[in-house]
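Troubleshooting log. The previous structure file for this entry was overwritten by mistake, so regenerating from the original sequence record. Sequence copied from the archived sheet and checked twice against the printout by T.R.
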Amino acid sequence: MKEFYSRFLNQGAFIRLSSTEVHLWAGIFQPSSREHGSLALCPFWQQGLDFFEFSEQRVLSVQEVHRDLEALMGPLNVQPGQFKGPERSQLEISFQATQGRIQRGEIEKAVVIGSKHSDWIPSVPERASMMMKALQAPAKTYPYGYWNAQGGAIGVTPEILFQRLGSDILTMALAGSCPREEVSQRAPLLKDPKELREHQMVVKDISERLRQQGWLVVKDTEVMELPTLLHLKTEIEIKQCKKTDEELVQLLHPTAAMAQFPRNYGLQWMKDLPYQKDRGLHGGAVWFRFGKQDGLDRSIALVSIRSLFWENANSQGTAAGRSWMTAGCGIVAESQEEREWKEMLAKFSSIHKALGIVE
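Regenerated output below.
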């Protein structure tokens, strides 16, 4: 196992699917065809999946991974304040531009983002430490990561684009949030008109995309309680879906939870807002294939939020290494800038806490 973890921490990927089961891939991390790929990435501004394969896969319990990683982990050499940003002035620009389009009736909702940057790059022992911390996240979330010589990502996302078991597809609308520290000062999420309206736009967006693809079931909206934030969540199921995973990504990505509502206005205008061109994989899809369960294909596509991303310095020395985090907030007509700013900061705080990074 020591040799496996050595390969894994240099070139690998993982996802925790439940509170007990962790899938790990290790070894050669290289581009692949869709038929052989175990991992695929779809950055936010992209529509198709880029597939990758590994030389080895293992399925272990959380307890086994914790035991094995403990000897390999090291302290995170990140100092308080080493991550710079986001800038309040940049949010103001994005907020006003979005509200202008809402007031003109061009859109009803859009998601604006902010970023924090650092020149710190996690070492192999630091990856092990962050992974161990991430695996302690609540069972309703999805700790995941991937990395190679070029860079990587590690995070704890609460959101999936879809999950497949055969022809049965599960997806979700996850929109409408409240920082835990504000719970006593605000209306309950299930009775908050602004948050409910924002959430229903996402439910409508996903339902409209899937309505013709099979038997659609929209479940009751509930509150997902996480350590730092509360979210409105509605699970949506589709039975007897004939779409492939790649077709589902093209159909669903990006949902109104990550982009705008309605979709037909187009996303070009968003690229001119601060930070938008730098979205990278934030709000994009990270797809994993697990083979078959009871003879049925099993896979999942995560929405890549609440994550740390990094790029190593390139071999030619033309670009320095860096790491960054990104967080977004949904803007509707009723939105208040101060409230959205606090929500964005709470999301950054959740990334720090989930990975054990000092603020």
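DSSP finds seven helices and 19 strands in the chain. Archived copy saved in two places this time.
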